[in-house]
Write a structure and sequence with these properties.
InterPro entries: Beta-barrel_RND_2, BSH_CusB, CzcB_C, MFP_Cation_Efflux, RND_pump_MFP
Helix content: 10-25%
Keywords: Ion transport, Signal, Transport
Structural class: alpha+beta
Radius of gyration: 44 Å
GO molecular function, one term: transition metal ion binding
Shape: rod-shaped
Protein name: Membrane fusion protein, Cu(I)/Ag(I) efflux system
Family: Belongs to the membrane fusion protein (MFP) (TC 8.A.1) family.
Length: about 475
C-alpha cells in the first residue's frame, strides 16, 4: 500500500467516523470536523497525525490525547521532512508509469531503503525512487518545494577587490634614535644644576649644569699653550692633537670655541642639552662627584615615537613594510594617528603566538607618551579584482573547503575549491569555480545534509542488490 492509498483510507475513516457521530448525535468533535473539512477543501488529505502540542508522537490514523484533544493532521505540503512525490508516480500511473522503480526509501528521510514496497513503524508507505530521480553524478537534486522551504539561495561568483582590516593592540615606545644620554668621560664635580627636573621639556642648547673637571682643565691649558705658540708647523699639528683631546673628553663645542677666543683656561664648563626633548632621568646633584661613565641626564625627543603592535601569527603573511597603519590611543577617543610599518621583528612570541611590528608615528603635539596603550588597524588586501564568493557559501571542514554550484532545475553540485584572502564578507576563490557560476550562499548545511543522505541511500541501495 502506498502513501496515496493510506491517505485516502485515512480520509474515508475520518468521514465515516464523522457520519457515525452525526447519526448518533453524541460525542462529535468540532475540532476534528473542522480540520478534516479544511483538509478536504484544500484537496490535501493528511498523511499522518501528530500530537497537538508538537511532541514527537505520531499516528497513521486519527487519535486523541489522554485529555480528549484530537491529534493534528499533517498534509504532504506541511511535512518539511519529505519530498512531495506525485501519487500517480508512486502508484505507477502518469509519467511515473513509464519508469522503473529502483528502490523505496524511508518517508521520514532516514537512511533506510527497501527493494519492495514497505511501511515504517508509523504505518507510512516508503517512497518510490525511480530511474532518473537521482543522477548518477555527485549532484544533489532538490525539489522546488524543498528549495523554497529551506531558503536555498544562490549568487554568481564575481570579481571584486577584497580589503580587510587587521586589528591588534600595542604600546607606545620611544624612538631609540632620539634618546640622548649625558655622561662624564672623566672624573668631574657638579658645581650647580639648572632648574630642570624629570619630565621637564628642554630645548637644544639649553644650559643643564656647570661642572669642573681636572682632566678637561689640563687639556684646555695644553691647547691654549699650543695655539698661542708662534713656532713651526709641527707645533700646529700638535695643537690639533690637543684640541682632539678636548673633543674626546666630550667638552661642548661652545666651550672649545670660547677657549680659542679668550685664550683662558676655564675653571668650569657649562653643559648644554644636545637635543629638544623631555628629561627622562636627572642624576645630577649639585656638589656631587661623578666618576667616568656616570649618567647625569637622559633626554628623549617625543615628536616621533614608535607603536609596537602585536598581531596574530596567521596575519603575518599579509604584512608588508611601508604599509599604512592607523593608531588610536585609549586616552584620546576619536583621535587617529597615522604612521607606517618600518620593521617586522624576526621572532614569534611562543606564548601568545603573535608577531611584533614597529610603526613609526609622528607625534608633533607630544600626546602619545611612553608605554601608553593603543589600538592599531592595518588595512590589507589589493586593489586588483579577484574572483570571490560570499563567505557563507564555503563549507569548511578544516582540511577541505567546498561550495555547492547551482546547476539549475534543483541540481546542486558540490565542488572543492582553493581559497585565498578574505575580507568584507567575501573570500577569494583561486581554483574550483569559474566566473559567473552561481553558488549556494544560504542553507548550505541543509544541502550538505541532503548530500550525505543521498550518499547513504545510494550505498544502501547498492548493497541490497543481489
Amino acid at each position: 500500500m502506498n502513501r496515496a492509498v493510506l491517505a485516502c483510507a485515512g480520509v474515508a475513516l475520518i468521514a465515516a467516523a464523522g457520519a457515525g457521530l452525526v447519526a448518533t448525535g453524541a460525542g462529535r468533535s468540532p475540532a476534528r470536523a473542522d480540520v478534516t473539512s479544511a483538509a478536504a477543501e484544500a484537496n490535501q488529505p493528511p498523511i499522518y497525525y501528530q500530537d497537538p502540542d508538537g511532541k514527537p508522537d505520531y499516528s497513521p490514523v486519527p487519535k486523541k490525547t489522554p485529555d480528549g484533544r484530537d491529534y493534528r493532521p499533517v498534509s504532504a505540503d506541511d511535512d518539511v521532512r519529505v519530498d512531495k512525490t506525485p501519487a500517480a508516480s508512486v502508484a505507477g500511473g502518469g509519467n511515473g508509469g513509464n519508469r522503473k522503480i529502483k528502490y523505496y526509501r524511508n518517508p521520514m528521510g532516514l537512511p533506510d531503503t527497501s527493494p519492495v514496497p514497505k511501511k515504517d513503524s508509523m504505518g507510512m508507505d516508503y517512497i518510490a525512487v525511480f530511474d532518473g530521480d537521482e543522477p548518477d553524478d555527485d549532484t544533489v537534486k532538490l525539489s522546488p518545494g524543498k528549495i523554497q522551504r529551506t531558503g536555498v539561495k544562490s549568487e554568481p561568483a564575481v570579481r571584486r577587490a577584497i580589503r580587510s582590516v587587521i586589528r591588534a593592540p600595542g604600546t607606545i615606545q620611544l624612538d631609540e634614535r632620539r634618546v640622548s644620554v649625558i655622561a662624564m668621560r672623566s672624573e668631574s664635580f657638579v658645581l650647580n644644576v639648572a632648574n630642570v627636573t624629570t619630565g621637564s621639556h628642554v630645548a637644544k642648547g639649553q644650559r643643564l649644569m656647570e661642572i669642573y673637571s681636572p682632566a678637561i682643565s689640563s687639556a684646555a691649558a695644553e691647547y691654549i699653550a699650543t695655539i698661542s705658540s708662534k713656532t713651526t708647523a709641527g707645533d700646529g699639528l700638535y695643537g690639533r692633537g690637543s684640541r682632539q683631546r678636548l673633543i674626546n673628553l666630550d667638552m661642548p663645542d661652545a666651550a672649545i670655541a670660547a677657549i680659542e677666543k679668550t685664550r683662558n683656561v676655564p675653571t668650569s664648563v657649562e653643559w648644554d642639552s644636545p637635543r629638544d626633548g623631555i628629561v627622562l632621568e636627572r642624576g645630577a646633584i649639585e656638589g656631587m662627584r661623578v666618576q667616568p661613565g656616570g649618567v647625569l641626564f637622559r633626554i628623549a625627543d617625543h615628536t616621533v615615537v614608535w607603536a609596537l603592535i602585536d598581531i596574530a601569527e596567521r596575519d603575518l603573511g599579509a604584512i608588508r613594510l611601508g604599509q599604512s597603519a592607523t593608531v588610536r590611543a585609549r586616552s584620546f577617543p576619536g583621535r587617529e594617528f597615522t604612521g607606517r610599518i618600518e620593521v617586522v621583528y624576526p621572532e614569534i612570541n611562543k606564548e601568545t603566538r603573535t608577531a611584533r611590528l614597529r610603526v613609526v608615528l609622528p607625534n608633533p603635539e607630544e600626546l602619545l607618551l611612553h608605554d601608553m596603550y593603543v589600538d592599531a588597524e592595518i588595512t590589507i588586501g589589493s586593489s586588483a579584482a579577484v574572483l570571490t564568493v560570499p563567505e557563507s557559501a564555503v563549507m569548511d571542514t578544516g582540511s577541505r573547503q567546498a561550495v555547492f554550484v547551482d546547476k539549475g532545475q534543483g541540481r546542486l553540485e558540490p565542488r572543492d575549491v582553493k581559497l585565498g584572502q578574505r575580507g568584507d564578507g567575501y573570500v577569494e576563490i583561486r581554483e574550483g569555480v569559474a566566473e559567473g557560476e552561481p553558488v549556494v550562499v544560504s542553507a548550505n548545511f541543509l544541502v550538505d545534509a541532503e548530500s550525505n543522505l543521498k550518499a547513504a541511500l545510494k550505498g544502501f541501495s547498492e548493497g541490497s542488490k543481489p
